[in-house]
Amino acid sequence: EVRGAQENNSGPVPEKKRMMPVRLADIDWSGCAAVYGRPYRDRVIHLLALRDYKEPELLARLQRDGVRPKDKDSLGKILQQVANLNARDNSFSLKEHLFQTLQTDWPGYSKIDRENLRLILSRKSAPSQNLTSSSQATSPGPSERDAPVRR
C-alpha cells in the first residue's frame, strides 16, 4: 500500500497557476536601488510631476521601490508641503513652483517618463512666456480697469 501511494506522487504535480519565468539577471535593479537611496520627499515630487495620484496609489507606488521605516508615516506631511489636493477626486498634484526643481534624469524614470516630463515642462514654460508678453502689451491702464462696464 505504501508503494502505491509513492507511485501516485511520482508523476508531475499539476500547477494551479503558470508563472512566466523571470531571470534575476533580466531585472534592472539600478533604478530601484538608486531611487531607494534618494530622499523620500524627492521621490514623491518626481512621481507627482508625471501625473496626479490618490494617496493609496502613490503609497503603493513608493512601496514598490522600497520605503525606509523612518519614512513610512511621513507621506501625509510631505504631501501637504509639495502637493495640492483636488477635492473632487481626492487626488494630489504637484505644486507649480516645484516643477522647476525636477531632475529630468531622475533614476526612477523610464525613457517614456523622461519624454513625458520634457513635454510637461515645455507646456508649463510656454504658456507663462506667452502670458507675460501678451499681458504687458494688452494690459489696460488703471482708469480702464476701474471704469464701469457699459452695455
From TrEMBL:
<dbReference type="InterPro" id="IPR019464">
    <property type="entry name" value="ELL_N"/>
</dbReference>
<dbReference type="Pfam" id="PF10390">
    <property type="entry name" value="ELL"/>
</dbReference>
<dbReference type="InterPro" id="IPR036390">
    <property type="entry name" value="WH_DNA-bd_sf"/>
</dbReference>
<dbReference type="GO" id="GO:0008023">
    <property type="term" value="C:transcription elongation factor complex"/>
</dbReference>
<dbReference type="InterPro" id="IPR031176">
    <property type="entry name" value="ELL/occludin"/>
</dbReference>
<dbReference type="GO" id="GO:0032968">
    <property type="term" value="P:positive regulation of transcription elongation by RNA polymerase II"/>
</dbReference>
<dbReference type="InterPro" id="IPR042065">
    <property type="entry name" value="E3_ELL-like"/>
</dbReference>
<feature type="compositionally biased region" description="Polar residues">
    <location>
        <begin position="125"/>
        <end position="141"/>
    </location>
</feature>
<dbReference type="GO" id="GO:0000987">
    <property type="term" value="F:cis-regulatory region sequence-specific DNA binding"/>
</dbReference>
<feature type="domain" description="RNA polymerase II elongation factor ELL N-terminal">
    <location>
        <begin position="13"/>
        <end position="124"/>
    </location>
</feature>
<dbReference type="GO" id="GO:0006368">
    <property type="term" value="P:transcription elongation by RNA polymerase II"/>
</dbReference>
<feature type="region of interest" description="Disordered">
    <location>
        <begin position="123"/>
        <end position="151"/>
    </location>
</feature>
<protein>
    <submittedName>
        <fullName>ELL2 factor</fullName>
    </submittedName>
</protein>
<dbReference type="GO" id="GO:0042795">
    <property type="term" value="P:snRNA transcription by RNA polymerase II"/>
</dbReference>
